[in-house]
Specification:
Helices cover 32% and strands 14% of the residues. It is of the alpha/beta class. It has a single domain, classed as Oxidized Rhodanese, domain 1, CATH 3.40.250. β4, α3 and β5 form a beta-alpha-beta unit.
Length: 111
């Protein structure tokens, strides 16, 4: 059996989707990480108590994108969502918050 195919979104595409509202971003890092700095507008659903039913429903022309620190936890979250029947949660920002910060992009602090 092969692993499910997940999509990776590029930084520019992520930024454009956040700007025009076509991307619903979900951060699956833990509370301390999220509070220390997250991408503005990201919903918080930590992997340690990840609940696929709390993922937003994308709807027409919108996409759910999951991210973490560097890409490992987001893959785990996408797999959990897939197993729960969510076929629309198969895209992540694989570079995670590290790639976002390395690109000089701003973060928001607090919960």
């Amino acid at each position: 059996m092969t692993a499910a195919a997940f999509n990776d979104i590029a930084l520019d595409e992520l930024k454009a989707g956040l700007a025009d509202g076509s991307i619903l971003l979900v951060d699956v890092r833990e509370a301390d990480e999220y509070s220390a700095g997250h991408i503005k507008g990201a919903l918080f659903n930590p992997l340690s108590r990840f609940d696929p039913s709390k993922l937003p429903v994308a709807g027409e022309g919108r996409k759910v994108v999951i991210y973490c620190r560097s890409g490992r936890r987001s893959v785990s979250a996408m797999e959990q969502a897939r197993l729960a029947g969510r076929r629309d949660c198969n895209t992540h920002f694989g570079g995670g918050i590290l790639a976002w910060l390395n690109a000089g992009e701003p973060v928001e602090e607090g919960i």
